[in-house]
Amino acid sequence: MSAMTTWKSIADLIGESGDVAILGAPMDAGSVTPGRCDLAPETVRKALKRFSTYDLETGREIATAIVDRGDAAVKGLMPADGFDAIRDAVTAATKDHALTLLIGGNNAVTRPGAHGLGVPLDKVGLITLDAHFDLRETDQGPRNGNPVRCLLEDGLPGANICQIGLAPFANTGKMHRDALAAGIGVFTITDCKVRGIRAVLDEAIERLEHCEALMVDFDIDVIDRGQLPGAPGARPGGMSADMFFAAVRHLASEPRVRVADLTEFDPSLDVSDTTALTAGRWVCEMLAGFERRRAAGLSH
Ligand SMILES: [Mn+2]
User: In whole angstroms, what is the distance from residue 150 CA to residue 138 CA?
Assistant: First the structure.
């Protein structure tokens, strides 16, 4: 191919070694709305070819080397049965890489992801960008609707959790009261829009000052359904894609963030690749934020 028809893409950053890992977790079983979230890791990998490495906003080329560690063997497994595979794969990835991008799968992958940080749960911080509390009851076992309740029951203190972008008429009063009673930092979608996402994120990061390592759960259904058709839980009135991308970049620049997941992307619901391109851009923004750590001289 001639130079005219090629550009360096984010996919070209994938090689044998690197500071950032991509790890797929194609889990869909146990979803409140059964679908095909298991297709998301491969769809995101393909989408990365469509992004250039040039970040026009900073005038910099993204140069962070990425390792694709493949998928945890969880296809078709219920969350309880796939827990060990995801936790162990995340633990191995965090040993070798400063930042691990865990691509679900449904939101049930967040629980094993947090356990995989390799830090005692009382020192783990969890930030969720999600329309939902994910505090459904656990009497039927772990599901995509209850990872935060599972983690509380596992021993993650509520004071170590901040939930951002929560939507009205998509959660119950009991979930809200339980979150507040547990000491979770609760930030609604209107908080994000009125106060600005940066102010909300800074408050959340400050609340988690006592945590040694952070995981961020990006449940893509936090984004407005009009901009994000490919997630069963997305609703009108959600976060704009712009705000989401700004949040991703800012959170990725926080050196304690060691694992970030992207969950609830169901490629079978997508329209015009909108969600695939949003998920691909999530990887780009994670890399841009990660490179800010280096630029700021912040080690991990
Ligand atoms: Mn969720």
Answer: 7
Q: Which residues pair with 71 in a beta bridge?
A: 24
Q: How far apart are CA 191 and CA 150, in angstroms?
A: 26
Q: What are the structure tokens assigned to 80, written together? A: 């309880």
Q: Which of 134, 91, 96, 80 is nearest to 19 (CA)?
A: 96
Return d(Cα 38, Cα 221) in angstroms, integer: 16
Q: What's residue 33's pLDDT?
A: 87
Q: Please give the distance, rounded to the nearest whole angstrom, from the Cα atom of residue 145 to the centre of ligand 1.
A: 6
Q: Residue 261 Cα, ligand 1 centroid: separation in angstroms?
A: 11
Q: How far is the CA of 13 from the centre of ligand 1 (A)?
A: 29
Q: What are phi and psi of 285, to 5 degrees?
A: -70, -35
| 43 CB burial (10 A radius; 0-12, 13-18, 19+) | buried
Q: Residue 49 belongs to what domain range?
A: 3-295
Which pair of tokens denotes residue 60? 């910099």
Could you tell me what percent of the chain has a pLDDT over 70?
A: 97
Q: Is residue 264 part of a domain?
A: yes
Centroid of ligand 1 to alpha carbon of 264 (angstroms): 7
CATH number for the domain harbouring residue 63: 3.40.800.10
Q: Is residue 141 part of a domain?
A: yes
Q: What is the pTM of this model?
A: 0.96
**122 occurs within a structural domain:** yes
- Interval between CA 289 and ligand 1 midpoint (Å): 23
Count: domains in the chain: 1
Does 300 reside within a domain? no
| Ligand 1 centre distance from Cα of residue 5 (Å) | 40
Task: Compute the distance from residue 233 Cα to the ligand 1 centre, in Å.
Answer: 8
Centre of ligand 1 from the C-alpha of residue 131, in Å = 7
Digit-coded pLDDT (tens) for 202-247? 999 999 999 999 999 999 999 999 999 999 999 999 999 999 999 9
Average pLDDT, the chain: 96
Ligand 1 mean position to 169 CA, how many Å?
15
